[in-house]
Design brief:
This protein has 561 residues and is α/β, with parallel strands linked by helices. It has 17 helices and 19 strands.
């Protein structure tokens, strides 16, 4: 092994960003209540009724009913099915809100009228007369259930043929009715004619306090600048702050306080690493959009939660990109591959993703070697994988890859070695020159992603708001997420709601922040930059160099390079 050379500044900065991200799951700060800086007084409600509504969030039953009404799915029950003629389809494709409107106001499209579904309208004492001449009395809970499940109104008439019939449980119908009784007054909190309240949760104490401060400062600076320019549809963005906790439940509690006490409309740049599942559970249950979660674990469930939008790829997506890269580098479909990883949630997530992606590409399942921290036998592992004829190895560990490289060199065995840059040792560029063109790392972003215009914006904000010249990577990440949220709010329009914001974000395609790869979201895609930059190690010069460029994490076509 030769002496290690210093990495070029550009790639060293990227390695530092990734090293920071890897350490996020171990961040801990003592739980504390919302900071004084976040305690800005709310504008008074316009009426007593408005105040009461603001203090009365949806119950769990009403939230379940809202999910059925808005999305055609029940969080806690079996699949809801829509029947239209002879065709059965998931109700997600024919949700109530799609025809009757997000507030149950009713709509007319293509000459077909979908009536109002507010409970006050359905239960009018004098009944209903429809444009077709059909008449019936007011609905009650029983007759409403009969109408949506059997297509019969309170007078025994058949409903219009365009109205689907739904297969639902009695409990699901009860949930739906509970929400329809609230739908008229269901307004997203902290959304007024003049302001939108957004929340952020970050560390304020401990080893990542400075990183948290950088995230908060840039987020506040961007929104302050946006407000100076008139805000969005004459609404100012108000920022509320909470602190992450020492344990995942403490962080979840901080998010709950932001939602309950500060009534935030959306969240941005939340430092969720180490509490990802708990954080996602909170925003999912409460229906609050989150843009730019700061974490490496971007996949906490299947399908991904619709409320959470990640800008950059975590270990799961990067591993899929590396699998695609490996499949292209190894033309032999039967080429043996392997995964070595140190046990832990991040590494296990990455290993599963790599294996699955290789199978999707029509390749054999990789051999897997898992080890406990501090118990890696580099010599035995290298000998075993050499005997197996492994041509590519994904190593996911805590810096043990340098030992593996040294043992492989002793055996005169030089496979392709793939690494997640976020988890790789800084000593990797010092590997033997016999590993020329054999070592590759993934990174979520590289300096070339940053445009001069975006850097000018960053510098202008740094000057105007006296931002620190440290933790620039965290500031750039925060700026990109704030821009994405602002773009979603802008596209959602003046008639804003959380649901409209989610739909607007899902519509972002190749959106350029100038600070990261272009972002594309969709109904089933919640990682905007869905791939990774693959960088090579120039072992002769001891530095990182560009290699394959951006590699998509989308499924490769089996047998195709």
């Amino acid at each position: 092994m030769k002496a290690r050379r210093i990495l070029p500044h550009a790639f060293a900065s990227i390695a530092a960003v990734c090293a920071l991200a890897f350490s996020l799951p171990f961040a801990g700060a003592a739980a504390r209540h919302l900071t004084e800086s976040a305690r800005r007084p709310q504008p008074p409600p316009r009426s007593h009724a408005a105040r009461q509504q603001r203090l009365s969030p949806l119950t769990e039953q009403e939230r379940r009913g809202k999910s059925i009404y808005t999305h055609g799915e029940s969080p806690d029950g079996p699949e809801v099915t829509a029947v239209l003629g002879e065709i059965d389809v998931p109700a997600t494709t024919l949700s109530c809100s799609g025809c009757h409107g997000p507030r149950g106001e009713g709509r007319t499209e293509g000459g077909v009228t979908a009536g109002a579904l507010t409970w006050s309208h359905l239960t009018k004492s004098y009944g209903h007369t429809h444009p077709t001449g059909r008449k019936h009395g007011p609905f009650n809970e029983s007759s409403f259930a009969l109408s949506i499940m059997s297509g019969i109104d309170p007078a025994g008439n058949q409903l219009f043929v365009a109205m689907p019939r739904y297969r639902m449980t009695a409990a699901q119908v009860t949930d739906l009715v509970a929400y329809l009784k609230r739908i008229e007054d269901d307004r997203d909190p902290s959304l007024t004619e003049t302001s939108i309240t957004v929340g952020i949760i970050t560390p304020e104490r401990g080893p990542f306090a400075d990183t948290g401060a950088a995230l908060r400062a840039m987020t506040a600076a961007y929104f302050a600048d946006l407000n100076k320019r008139g805000g969005l549809y004459n609404r100012r963005i108000e920022l509320k702050v909470a602190e992450t906790g020492e344990r995942p439940p403490d962080t979840a509690a901080g998010l709950e306080r932001l939602i309950d006490e500060d009534q935030v409309f959306a969240l941005v740049n939340a430092f969720t690493a180490g509490a990802d599942r708990e954080a996602v559970a909170v925003v999912s249950r409460r229906g609050v959009p989150l843009v730019g979660a700061q974490t490496l674990l971007t996949q906490t469930g299947t399908p991904p939660d619709r409320h959470v939008f990640f800008l950059l790829p975590g270990v799961e997506v990067q591993s899929r990109a590396l699998a695609n890269f490996a499949a292209r580098r190894l033309p032999d479909k039967e080429a043996a591959t392997a995964i070595i990883y140190q046990r832990g949630e991040l590494a296990e997530t990455a290993a599963r993703a790599f294996s699955e992606q290789m199978r999707r590409a029509g390749r054999s399942a990789p051999a897997v070697v898992a080890y406990e921290r501090g118990k890696f036998d580099a010599a035995a592992t290298a000998a075993e994988l050499k005997r197996a004829g492994s041509q590519a190895v994904l190593f996911i560990g805590g810096g043990e890859e340098t030992k593996f490289l040294a043992e492989a060199e002793k055996l005169r065995w030089f496979p392709h070695v793939l690494l997640l840059g976020v988890m790789a040792s800084r000593e990797v560029p010092a590997a033997s020159t016999d590993f020329k063109d054999k070592i590759f790392l993934s990174f979520p972003t590289v300096p070339a992603d940053i445009t001069p215009e975006a850097m000018s914006l960053y510098r202008a904000l740094a000057r105007e708001y006296s931002l620190t010249d440290k933790h620039v990577a965290a500031q750039l990440s925060a700026l990109a997420a704030a821009q994405a949220l602002a773009e979603g709010l802008k596209r959602a329009g003046q008639n804003l709601s959380r649901e409209r914001l989610i739909m607007a974000l899902e519509g972002l395609y190749e959106f350029k922040t100038g600070l990261a790869p272009p972002l594309t979201f969709g109904p089933n895609r919640r990682v905007g930059a869905h791939g990774a930059h693959v960088i090579a190690v120039d072992v002769e010069r001891g530095e990182y160099v560009p290699s394959a460029g951006w590699v998509s994490a989308e499924a490769e076509v089996a047998g195709k390079p």
